[in-house]
Design goal:
Blueprint: E1 3-9, H1 11-14, H2 21-37, E2 41-47, H3 50-63, H4 69-90, E3 113-116, H5 125-135, E4 140-145, E5 150-151, E6 163-164, E7 166-167, H6 169-176, H7 190-199, E8 202-207, H8 211-219, E9 226-229
């Protein structure tokens, strides 16, 4: 039986301003070690847009006064596909499928790595990770970004914001809101949140660049991060 890990890898750590080559090299070594430990280990890596998405969406908003949400989403989606193609190439020895751009499409998971990117307007790649988790029987999504924990509010704006070790789906929904806006900066997007709650999935939000901490999560050891949903 396969052990499938779903890694919702934020573009903020793949390409924060430009491609973070050092991190990707270290991440490759980390994941390859885990994959080699057991041929039944499989990883689904869903890649966000990062700086390319942010910069090109902002350029569009600067050019077009009444910018369209759909167009902004497509710009972001295209950025995720660029980042995903890079990660697919990095793991080419383990990834036999093309980059997945429709998470409902794959019927099989050959190889040990599947790389996915943005699908269509209306949500972020977080939702894609939920669809793939459901499809391939994973009960946990590792939401890896540039923050170590989910906070009660944006710590850059609210000095009283405090980090959380655990938050229920009901409470997280109140924090994330109900509406998806392209480029919205929340740990896990509202559309993905709704579906993950319905499926009773667990999301672990943690700092993606802390690979020692990520190993602890993989190994079921004590870790730094926030559990959302099912304990």
């Amino acid at each position: 039986m396969s052990n499938v890990k779903v890694l919702d890898l934020g573009g903020s750590i793949v390409a924060p301003d430009e491609v973070d080559v050092s991190f990707i090299k270290e991440f490759k070594v980390f994941l390859e070690t885990w994959l080699k430990d057991d041929k039944n280990n499989k990883a689904i890596i869903v890649i966000g847009g990062g700086a390319p998405a942010r910069k090109y969406q902002q350029a569009y908003r600067n050019i077009v006064e009444n910018s369209d949400h759909n167009e902004q989403d497509w710009i972001g989606i295209t950025a995720t596909r660029l980042n995903a193609q890079l990660i697919k190439a990095v793991f080419k020895d383990y990834c036999v499928e093309d980059v997945v751009i429709d998470p409902t499409a794959p019927e099989r998971f050959d190889g040990q790595v599947m790389v996915a990117a943005g699908w269509k307007p209306g949500f972020s790649t977080d939702f894609d990770s939920v669809v793939l988790a459901e499809k391939f029987g994973a009960d946990t999504i590792l939401n890896l970004s540039n923050i170590a924990k989910v906070y009660t509010a944006d710590p850059n704006k609210d000095p009283n914001a405090r980090p959380l070790d655990y938050v229920s789906w009901d409470d997280y929904k109140k924090m994330a809101g109900d509406e998806w806006i392209p480029g919205k900066n929340v740990p896990f997007d509202p559309v993905a949140t709704k579906r993950a709650a319905e499926l009773n999935l667990q999301v672990i939000a943690a700092a993606g660049k802390d690979l020692e901490n990520l190993k602890n999560i993989f190994d079921g050891e004590e870790f730094i991060g926030t559990i959302i949903g099912r304990k």
